[in-house]
Amino acid sequence: MEDKNSLPPFIVEVPYSTAPRMVRHQGALTHLPARTSYLEAKRVELASLGADLCAQIPHATLTPLLQHAAQVLHVPKPEQIQSIEDLALCLEEDVALMQDGVLSAICFCFPSSWVPAERIGMPLGQIHAHVADGQKLVAASPKIAHVMGDLEQGSFRRYVWTITNSPKLSQHPKYKNPSTPKTIDDLYYRVETQTTLPLPSNTGRSSLFLVKVEVCPLADLWSNLEQRQTIYDSISSMSDAVLEYKNLQAIKTILSRAYTQAS
């Protein structure tokens, strides 16, 4: 899915933390023009699991907000956007709409081990409640939702990464890979680039939440000594709860063995 000469951003930090590290973002919000391969992959997922991936609460302000977002994102013919699915199929990014701190619309074609439609109508804190060691994230969620919808604050960006045994962009629970990874060659580096976009609203604070998913073979990074060290140190710093939540227990063993062999 990636360009052959490009890799996802390397954003691994030591020690690992689930704390919300959002920074102001003034660059491009999306990857435009959207690549045909990404849009086709989205259509395939929606045709298969659309009811799980896409949902919205009927609201009079929903369509105008989505059309405004499309205009800001330079989507062609923004006036034709009628639903969250319409907008998602114009972008490589998955999209969600928060209104007054509540998830009112979502179209996540490439979720990370959860069912997007099940979160509709939830406040941000409840959405984050399942994250291991996520107490700081949950506690900060009301403030995050408030800042996300603040037009004066502008856009923010954060990253989430993991190691997985699947090369798929979608990590929907129904796609769980039953095979047991044995070596670095069986593993993949997965990154979500999460970007917020505040939207004007007469009924409260609203914001768009964009998530770009990228996956590459872990071996592409592991060959770099500095990156290998950082990945190893970061996973070694994870608590047992985080390792279980991210399904990294067995993967940690593989990385430890590979790290020892490479040292």
Notes on the protein architecture:
The chain has one domain. It has a seven-stranded antiparallel sheet with strand order 1-5-6-7-3-4-2. The longest helix is centred in the N-terminal third of the chain and has 18 residues. With 263 residues, it is α+β, with helices and mostly antiparallel strands. The model has no long low-confidence stretch (mean pLDDT 92).
Please give the structural blueprint.
Layout (H helix, E strand, L loop, with lengths): L22 E3 L10 H18 E3 L5 H11 L11 H5 L5 E6 L2 E6 L16 H4 L7 H14 L6 E10 L23 E12 L6 E12 L1 H4 L2 H12 L3 H6 L3 H14 L1
Antiparallel strand pairs: 1-5, 2-4, 3-4, 3-7, 5-6, 6-7
**How is the main sheet built?**
7 strands, antiparallel
3D shape: globular
Number of helices: 9
Give the % helix. Answer: 25-40%
Mean pLDDT: 92
Q: Output the helix-strand order.
A: EHEHHEEHHEEEHHHH
Structural class: alpha+beta
Separation, N- and C-terminal Cα atoms:
32 Å
Poorly predicted regions are: none
Protein name: DUF3445 domain-containing protein
Pfam families: HODM_asu-like
Organism: Polynucleobacter sp. UK-FUSCHL-C3
InterPro entries: HODM_asu-like
